[in-house]
Amino acid sequence: MHVSHRWAAEFVTMPKPEQVRALLDAAGLPVESIKSDVAIADTVIIGHVLNVLAHPNADRLRIAEVNIGDGGLHRIVCGGPNLAQGQKVAVATPGTVLPNGQKIERSKIRGEESAGMLCAEDELGIGESHAGILVLPDNAPIGRPVTEVLKGKDLVYEISVTPNRSDCLSVLGIAREIAAASGKKLPTAPKGLRSKGKSPVKVRLQNKDCAMYLGQRMTKVRVQASPDWLQQRLQAAGVRPINNVVDIVNYVMLELGQPMHAFDAAKLSGETIQVRPAKAGESLLALDGKRYSLKPSMMLIADAKNPIAIAGVMGGEESGVTETSTDIILEAAVFASDSVYHTSRALQLSSESSQRFSKGIDPEMTGLAMQRAVQLLQAHAGAQPVGGVVQAGKLPKAAKPVRVSVTWLNEFLGTDIPATKIKKLLSSLGMKVSGSAKTLSVTPPSWRHDISLPEDVAEEVARLSGYNAIIRTVPPAPGRPVALPAQDVMTDRLADAFAQLGFHEHIGYAYVPEVMVQDDLKQAVRISNPLSAEQEYLRTSLIPGLLQVAAKNAKTHSDQRLFEFGKAYQRSGNTFTEDPMLLVLWQGSEKAVMEFSSLLRTVLEHHFGVTDFRLQAGENEVKILVQGQSVGRLLQASPLVLRNHKLSGLVRMAEFRLEALQKALEKAKIRYTEIPAYPEVKRDLALWIKAEIRYTDIEGIIRATPLITDFALFDVYEKEGKRSLAFHLSFRAADRTLSSDEVDASMHKLREALRTKVNAEVRS
Questions:
Q1: What is the spatial distance between Cα 190 and Cα 2, in angstroms, rounded to a whole number?
Q2: d(Cα 147, Cα 619) in Å, to the nearest integer?
């Protein structure tokens, strides 16, 4: 929100700019910047034209001899037709960069030296006129920066307004906050013109999302440029001036927070305005030049035949006010915030009007804003009211009082503020406060939609009394600590375990584009009001998201270890299911990624006491079994997936269903044993097997061999329908140091078991 210092000063006595910043910052409305609305360099100075000479080589150019206060006489070539001796002018000296980006240098123009430039309004960014040079007042001081005498010079505060404070999306709203924070009287809306008589306009209210609609017919309107002061205020607020009618409507919105609109009465079919739902197939050419297809869920303003505006969002171009308009109909209404919000989002059409309606306006300001607009149109467009204001509907019910215990409020804030001071603070914000020293009844004003709970009232007291005045205390923590849910404990331990092994956790969005649920589109859950096309669905799997992250990291990392906890969503009838998942990804060389299954076993055995971790090959996937239960699957990215994501090497993933994993881990118990007193013996084993033999069969034979305490697969390759597997084997006895003969005997039993059970050929 951009607020002019001078404009706000019409409502409240304004402190110095830095004090304004401090007051608003403390009130929860941080001032992002304070800028002059005239962005002109100090090197554009006031000059006095002493002589005007003809240019010897150009009929339309002349040479001005100008005094700029440095004791010299500067010759400047100028083409302004209004240049005359004795004028005070704006001189851009060499080295100046104008607001439009033009840099001024000493130059020769048609053979004559020019030491600068005499500027027009548009070149200084203070207007659109280029008809001639800007002529300054006769008393302008020679040699001083031109900004010192420009009428439009003002300070503009850029204020960050949170979504709950829609009352601060107006100059009046910001003035209220400054008044409350500085202990001044609460400002009120300026008085307008109350028109009288019966209106020729009729309004039919056919939509429950419009509580009240006001219309005012005006005639003898002269559409022209707005006064300079009005244009400057709009520009300071970031709004482009168009013509006096449109500008006045925008001015009232910025000043009072009430969006309004003006229709050209001659372009409407009849004098009846309808507020109704859109019909199927209807469309509207809006003021932004785009045609929008409308749905029955959207609220329209229409005449007897056609839509003329999207309620609360934007007017139609075909009924807009132009230079030829002489009769207009003013609109001011109270539209439901959620209706305007959903329409604006669905059409992806945002405006100053929709932003205010979406967050909630002050309904009691609607009539005052109409009167203010009528007054300004009469003064600056010669418009005359035709009859009075027509009203359909009525104002919404006032907000209910909030009961607040003074004792509770002080305990909640950690303060000791008496009831009398609380009343004074809240009253300064326009709240009606009654009650005793123990309990207060607080009724928020019509412009404060965010006050409905005792906590909201407490926040207002804290804001005005000053957060820095609240003494820091440690709040009491009665009761016993509550244990974390078992699944949360498990995920924390898993995260720690993978982090210790060099894995990095990724936290992704649950909202994804359609391309990331393409394989499960029928089961995918579509969001009814997505923030964008990139967040249109709930993810059905964590795999696409983590692969996308790996693809981004692959530019700088060839060995990646990632994991992510999150939910996968699937449609189930009229609702959907949420499945907590864990996805672990390892991308790297073939030799490194071979250790993946061993690493998973290590995590589950060492951190959760799992004694039975197995992989079971199925028709389409490899299941992960823990304590005999299926808890997930082991996957390997296909060559096509690797190419699409520009990943090299191997990418293996382990996908766990956390609810199933938790149930399996409940059966496991960590068993503690003494640290081995005797050394282990290591041997390697390589063998050939047929390609159809399952790895789990080999694993089972190795596990059943006496004295083998651990093993790891470190090499795999295939040749002519056979697969070669190579293992590191560890042998150990708990009560003695193993001899070579004992290890040889165990190796012999393993080889024989492999030959007889899976027809393995042991390589020497």
A1: 20
A2: 80
